[in-house]
Every structure is written in C-alpha cells, then in structure tokens.
Amino acid sequence: MSLLHRIVDSVYELRRKVDSEETFVRRTLRTHRQDGGARLLDVGCGFGRFHDFVVNAGWRYTGVDLSPRAVERGRAAGRDIRAAGDPLASQFQSDEKFAAILFAHVIEHFDTDSLIPFLAGYLEMLEPGGIVVILTPLMHRGFYDDFDHVKPYNPEAIRQMFCRSTLQTRPFELPGEYAEIDLWIKRDPFWHSYRTRRINHVLGIPLTIACVASFGLIAKTTGYGMVLRRTR
After folding, report:
1. What is the CA radius of gyration of the chain?
2. For the chain, how many structural domains are there in total?
3. pTM to 2 decimal places
4. Tell me: the pLDDT tens digits for 164-218?
5. Cα–Cα distance, 114 to 160 (Å, whole number)
6. Residue 84 has what DSSP assignment?
7. Residue 83: which CATH number?
C-alpha cells in the first residue's frame, strides 16, 4: 500500500471515530441495552459492518441480506445470518422476536409503495417496547452515486409513516405504534462527490481533518439516524 493510501485510510478512520454512523449506533445500543442478551436484527447486513458493535454492546446479533455472497461469508464466520427473499417468513420461526431492528442504508433503495410492505414484514418481529434504528442518506451531491438508490426519505417522511403524523392522511399499514426518541444528523466533509481522481482524495485529507476538528461545523449535511420505539 502506498504512503498516500495509508494517509487517506488513517484520516478516514479518524472520521469514523468522531460523531459518525458508527458512534451513533454504539451510543444507541449502549443506551437501550437490556439485560439477558437482547436480540438485534440487522436488515441488509452486508458483510457485517455493525456486527462487532452489536456484540460488544451486549446484544445477540442476527443479520439478513439479499446477497448470497454476504450470507455465505457471514455464516462462514460463525454468525447467525439469514437469506432475504420470498418468502421471508421461511427464514424465521413464527414466534421469533427482536428487541431492536436496524435498517442501515436500506430504505433509500425502495420507492414508497414497495417500502411499506418491506418494513411491515420485519416490524412484525419487533417486540413491544423494542426500538427501530434507521440510518439513511439525505439528498446530496453523491446520493445517486449508488446505482440502485431510488429516493431519499427526510426525517419528517419517516415520522409521517411511523408516528401517524397529522400532516399525512394516507394510511400506512405498519404493525404497531411508534414514538420517535432520538434523531442524529450526519455531516460529512465538503469534498464528498462522484469524482474519484487521486487529487480529490488528497484534497479530502485536510477537509476531513477540518470536519473532525470543528465537530462537523465545517461540513455538509448528508444523512441522519433516527430511533423509534414501538409503544404497542
């Protein structure tokens, strides 16, 4: 690995340790940890980015993903990973419940009509009193860098869907009732864009350091994390 790559990686690692998605998830899991090894379901778990955070916070981890490669790798590592698909219910026992469900960078891959039944299938497995954790991007310059991003969902849109906001008259058929209990705003360095030339990564080093040193003041809003509790 070149010196430039090592420098870039070390700066990015610093960014991940200061008010990042990882720190938000760790804080949330510590705050809402229950006795007895409560279970968390990581929907769209990929290669297990959050696995260690979940286990280290005292939760029992289950992941589910559409990618056969991700499922195979997770199982090879000894993790409880299920294969998403149709029928999803075949991957879970009828009485299987979770105290937390994590949707990290998932909902932006769905249009509105597809998102409701997708969420409903998983929320059936959330215990009353359990929490839903959502991480998702807002519209920014790099949003459509991901080929299958469909649309961003602002925090108010999630409130309308989960919390029965009076601003929305359309009925959303989601199991249970929910209350928002936390909202974290994600801010990233200004350099974030679709350009991948080496010079952009070099310029990203001081901008990332400035973002970290200013606690996000020298940055731009790119996403958020929301926590909702199932009240009944």
Report:
1. 18
2. 1
3. 0.88
4. 766 666 677 899 999 999 999 999 886 666 556 666 666 777 877 787 777 777 8
5. 16
6. -
7. 3.40.50.150
